[in-house]
Specification:
Strand content of chain A: under 5%
Order of helices and strands of chain A: HHHHHHHHHHEEHH
Largest interface: A-B, 76 and 85 residues
Shape of chain A: globular
Low-confidence stretches of chain B: none
Structural class of chain A: mainly alpha
Strand content of chain B: under 5%
Mean pLDDT of chain B: 86
Largest sheet of chain B: 2 strands, antiparallel
Largest sheet of chain A: 2 strands, antiparallel
Helix content of chain B: 55-70%
Number of helices of chain A: 12
Shape of chain B: globular
Mean pLDDT of chain A: 85
Radius of gyration of chain A: 20 Å
Number of helices of chain B: 15
Oligomer: heterodimer
Order of helices and strands of chain B: HHHHHHEEHHHHEEEEHHHEEHH
Number of strands of chain B: 8
Number of strands of chain A: 2
Chain lengths: 334, 469
């Protein structure tokens, strides 16, 4: 990809990086949640499936809607920091966002509903809607990134479908990996095995779909592929190619150390590989960071706000995850 | 008379309906979202200070409602932020660098709230009472900051400022402080903030007013009624004052909107105040009660004050007749119900002050039971007043709603609207069912002890995970 157009300026690049972090956080943290939803759908109605579903429910309850926050941040950063990008992307890709949103609301509503539903049939319907909507959101959000990466902003194209499929495999992979941890935490050895197997299957699917996606990128956006495999995206592309099998290997062999960190790093690297490969473009061939960036005073305020967040929200978020992972927040009664 | 923009922008009508629907829905979740944490902390503080387990139990129950409704608000709020792109891509494309600032602040505040609501809810029995209370103290300022952010953005739409526009109307420079603190922000912020607190107070208290009417008169009921109702009663009279200041500023800053609120047609002095009533295309007033010169007196403290009328503005730069009537009726509803609320508050405070005890009149509790719903109607009416009254502008006097709307086909927006109506209906049903269930469970639980969060979807896990459960 041609470089050098629009000399790189540190502040706009930093804001673009913060935006990338929000997208990555949603892809990884949100991905774990959506992935759990996918396994919920696949668990079926056998006794083992019901156990798996109970675990998923149990593991998800405390943090799931915190993940919406990353999404809101990404949106807000886009329209404030890169208003033209926001207008361009939404004017053309609105169908993708609408489907993703539909998944989001349905998921939230039916996750709540299955706790309220008493009748088995209603409960089952709630399970299915919840599971199906867990497919919609990751697919369509990633599809929008694919449409952006293609440089054409066409909602339904080979690139958008390829990105959507990769996202489904990646969420299934990270969901299964974290569910292994949850099963261990709650002392359910059969479910540990259950999700170990599923992690391996999902990893295989991810590698297959990922390879297929590289083919699609080669076909549709050869410049992007070059930059991904021989440019700025390379370190991250390599990282994801190494970390995905590594995390899977650890889980498969029952070496329960670092596997969740590696899972997050593998999925995060994938997002980074795409973003760095197409930088300094926000939309390849159409719009660069420096063309779309808001006036300097806005940039400064965005950075100030982001800095405050790192100082305040970072530790708070850490505390919540720490307490949650240690189960310190559970109700004591049993 | 009106420009037929519908023909030019096919998606305009469904987009406006969809935005109105989703915002009207979301606005209902805001009072408890912003103010319930404060009420809960107040109750928890009372419980810790007086070593009163009943107050702590109430606080803990309220925190459950707070979390459930926060989860719903998080979803509807996310939808709204996407609608800015799906329905009005050109609004943010043009003004995002200025108008988006408030939302950027709100985004982070929302983040903080989400985290601390989690910690607060899950920390009830795991953290020491003082630590739990102190961590909870992050919530009110976070809510405040969020409200500030959203209102800063809304104020920008009402009284844009802090931006330099280029030849093509694009924002070329932004004065951050000027864009955040526009003229409307001062009164919008205080008016809305006080509205949220008094609405939350009336709403929560109304639940226990019903309990009183049904014969429950114990310490639990008295405490859970008195704390929120006192907060609301202390705030309501101030709201009349703030509202009055806001209306006066409106006459100055947004004269079209003010003319619509008062359905004033001709610019004149000795302008009457029309209570209810409707205006037609010729400027005739039908029905309603006209009080001579009162509007002029309210605006400028003198009957000689000139008030600008709708006819002073070009037809395509002011609300249509229908919009003016909606604005006017919404405004009157808000002022009318607000005044009833203020009278009820004075009654309450009078009894407390003179007799040192809670009122014991059935009529008082009947009105108090209605006050919660009344306050919500006021919030909706106030929101309708400011939004419909701004038409046809999305950014006052600068950008039209029709200029901001999406190019998506109307059929697409109609379908999305239909889907949202169904899903939102389902959410409302679940939400209400859940609240009723909680209420029933807590009633049972008062007979035998049980943790309040048991069985709540967003609550802490109930004890150990058991396979085969």
């Amino acid at each position: 990809m041609a470089r050098g157009r629009g000399s790189s300026r540190p502040v706009p690049d930093l804001i673009a990086f913060v935006l990338l972090l929000a997208i990555t956080a949603y892809s990884t943290a949100g991905g774990v949640d959506f992935g759990a939803g996918i396994w919920d759908l696949m668990a079926g109605n056998s006794p083992r499936g019901r156990e798996a579903r109970a675990l998923i429910d149990h593991a998800m309850a405390p943090v799931w809607e915190v993940n919406n926050v990353w999404l809101v941040l990404a949106i807000v950063l886009t329209w404030t920091g890169f208003p033209i990008l926001f207008q361009k992307v939404f004017s053309s890709l609105y169908p993708l966002f609408t489907f993703a949103l539909l998944g989001l609301v349905l998921r939230g509503a039916f996750f709540a509903f299955r706790h309220v539903a008493e009748e088995p049939r209603a409960h089952r319907i709630a399970d299915v809607v919840f599971g199906l909507s867990s497919l919609l959101t990751p697919f369509f959000f990633a599809a929008s990134l694919g449409a952006i990466a293609s440089g054409h902003l066409v909602p339904f194209s080979p690139m958008s479908v390829a990105f959507g499929l990769v996202s489904l495999a990646a969420t299934a992979f990270s969901g299964a990996s974290f569910l292994v941890g949850d099963a261990r935490r709650y002392g359910a050895p059969e479910l540990v095995v259950h999700f170990q197997r599923r992690t391996v299957v999902a990893a295989a699917a991810l590698i297959a779909v990922g390879t297929f996606a590289l083919g699609v990128i080669w076909w549709q956006a050869p410049d992007l592929l070059r930059s991904m495999l021989a440019g700025k995206g390379l370190p991250f592309a390599l990282a994801t190619m190494i970390l995905t099998p590594l995390a899977t290997f650890l889980i498969w062999r029952g070496i329960f150390r670092w596997y969740r960190v590696l899972t997050v790093a593998a999925v995060g690297s994938m997002v980074f590989a795409w973003a760095f490969a197409q930088s300094p473009y926000l939309v390849p061939g159409q719009l660069t960071i420096s063309q779309a960036i808001a006036p300097p005073p806005t940039q400064v305020l965005l950075l100030v706000v982001a800095a405050v967040v790192v100082l305040v929200i970072g530790p708070a978020m850490g505390l919540l995850y720490y307490l949650d992972q240690r189960s310190a927040l559970e109700s004591p009664e049993s | 008379m009106d420009v037929d923009v519908d023909a030019l922008e096919p998606a305009l009508l469904p987009s406006r309906i969809q935005m109105a629907f989703t915002l009207a829905y979301h606005v209902l979740l805001v009072p408890l979202g912003v103010a319930l944490p404060s009420l809960t902390l107040l109750m928890e503080g009372i419980g810790i200070y007086r070593k009163d387990p009943v107050a702590l139990k109430i606080a803990r129950r309220w925190s459950v409602v707070m979390a459930v409704q926060f989860a719903v608000g998080a979803v509807t709020g996310t939808i709204l932020s996407f609608e800015f792109g799906i329905l009005w891509p050109r609004l943010m494309g043009r003004f995002g660098a200025a108008m988006g600032l408030g939302f950027a602040i709100e985004g982070w505040a929302f983040f903080l709230e989400a985290i601390f609501i989690g910690i607060y809810l899950y920390g009830w029995n795991r953290l020491r009472p003082r630590t739990h209370f102190l961590l909870g103290l992050v919530l009110p300022p976070a809510g405040l900051l969020g409200a500030f952010g959203v209102l800063a953005s809304n104020s920008f739409m009402n009284t844009p400022g802090g931006v330099t526009l280029g030849a093509n109307g694009q924002v070329t420079d932004v004065d951050v402080m000027g864009a955040l603190f526009t003229r409307a922000l001062g009164h919008e912020f205080w008016h809305f903030l006080v509205a949220l607190y008094l609405t939350a107070g009336f709403m929560v208290a109304s639940v226990y007013a019903v309990a009183w009417l049904r014969g429950r008169r114990d310490h639990y009921q008295r405490l859970a009624f008195a704390v929120p109702f006192t907060v609301a009663a202390l705030l309501t009279p101030w709201q009349l004052l703030i509202g009055d200041l806001a209306a006066r500023a409106m006459a100055e800053d947004q004269p079209q909107k003010f003319a619509a609120m008062e359905i004033t047609w001709q610019t004149r002095d000795h302008n009457p105040e029309v209570v209810l009533g409707l205006i037609d295309d010729q400027g005739e007033i039908h029905l309603g009660l006209s009080i001579p010169a009162l509007d002029s007196i309210l605006v400028g403290y003198s009957p000689n004050t000139t008030v600008r009328g709708l006819s002073a503005f070009p037809a395509d730069a002011r609300p249509t007749t229908v919009e003016a009537n909606i604005t006017h009726l919404a405004f009157d509803t808000m002022v009318g119900l607000g005044s009833v609320g203020a009278a009820l508050s004075v009654w309450y405070l009078w009894v407390i002050w003179r007799r040192r005890r809670l009122p014991d009149s059935r009529w008082f509790y009947r009105l108090a039971a209605l006050a919660g719903v009344g306050a919500y109607v006021c919030v909706e009416a106030g929101w309708i007043t400011t939004e419909v009254g701004r038409q046809p502008w999305i950014v006052y006097d600068t950008m039209r709603v029709s200029e901001a709307v999406t190019d998506a086909p109307a059929s697409f927006v109609w379908s999305m609207l239909a889907a949202l109506v169904v899903v939102y209906g389902v959410i409302a049903y679940f939400f209400i069912t859940l609240l009723l269930r909680l209420s029933a469970r807590w009633k049972r639980e008062d007979l035998r002890e049980e943790a309040p969060e048991v069985g709540v979807p967003y609550g802490p896990r109930s004890g150990k995970f058991e396979t085969g459960a």
